[in-house]
Amino acid sequence: MKISHIRREYSGQALTLENSAKNPVQQFTAWLEDATGIESTDPTAMTLATVDCTGTPNLRIVLLKGINEQGFNFFTNYNSAKGQEIAHTPQAAANFYWPALTRQVKIRGIIEKLTSHESDSYFNSRPKGSQIAAIASPQSQVVHQAELTERFKKLEAQYHNQNSLPRPHFWGGYRLIAHEIEFWQGQENRLHQRILYQRANNSSHWGKSTIAP
């Protein structure tokens, strides 16, 4: 299959030091609001990259479920491949891509667990079927589909009269605490615009600069 000819021209609003926010979280929030209004599918989807105990990289799509000055929140099974990799090496990176806007955001930082209260609060907000699936699934382990379906049905019957299930101890949230956030805006002739924010010595102060495409 020949693919070298597949390309498109990029264009978008200008991204400069002058018109970008002083704080990258504010800039990200503005871009996410734009994406939510234009992208038809999963504007909160991010590619999360981690490394295993041998240093081999791994990645997958997860959904962003919260953002504030502290970081970027997502939820998963602590025993999953990503959970084990985070436990071993908490350094990670994430990338958002919004093709309709020709924009990307790359985030690098350290991951920490959310509090039990934060994880409980989000788990309780999930649809009941999603709660059951979180309990039923031994995420990242080899499993027969029929066995998994049967496990789900048994839990569904067990909790038939309950509107919500208790959060299992092996499931909860993480926060990606950024030390570097890059914003990429596609432009004509591949002269894309990139603004890099870097946190100064783990403080609340961010410096920003323009980097070449």
CATH fold field value of the domain at 24-126 and 170-211: Pnp Oxidase, Chain A
Provide the gyration radius in Å.
Answer: 20 Å
Q: Provide the structure class.
A: alpha+beta
Report the principal-axis shape. Answer: globular
Strand content: 25-35%
CATH architecture of the domain at 24-126 and 170-211: Roll
Order of helices and strands: HEEEEHEEHHHEEE
The CATH superfamily of the domain at 24-126 and 170-211 appears as Electron Transport, Fmn-binding Protein, Chain A
- CATH class category of the domain at 24-126 and 170-211: Mainly Beta
Number of strands: 9
Number of helices: 5
GO biological process, one term: pyridoxine biosynthetic process
Family: Belongs to the pyridoxamine 5'-phosphate oxidase family.
Cofactor: FMN
Domain Pyridoxine 5'-phosphate oxidase dimerisation C-terminal: 171-213
Structure described in brief:
The protein is of the alpha+beta class.
Written account of the structure:
The chain has 213 residues and is an alpha+beta fold. The protein has a domain at 24-126 and 170-211: Electron Transport, Fmn-binding Protein, Chain A (Pnp Oxidase, Chain A, Roll). It is 26% helix and 33% strand. The protein contains five helices and nine strands. The protein has helices at 24-38, 81-88, 116-125, 128-136, 145-158; strands at residues 45-51, 57-63, 66-68, 71-77, 91-98, 103-113, 171-185, 193-199, 206-211. Strands 1, 2, 3, 4, 5, 6, 7, 8 and 9 form a nine-stranded antiparallel sheet that branches. α4 (128-136) packs across α5 (145-158). The protein is globular and about 60 Å long. Residues 42-147 form the Pyridoxamine 5'-phosphate oxidase N-terminal domain.
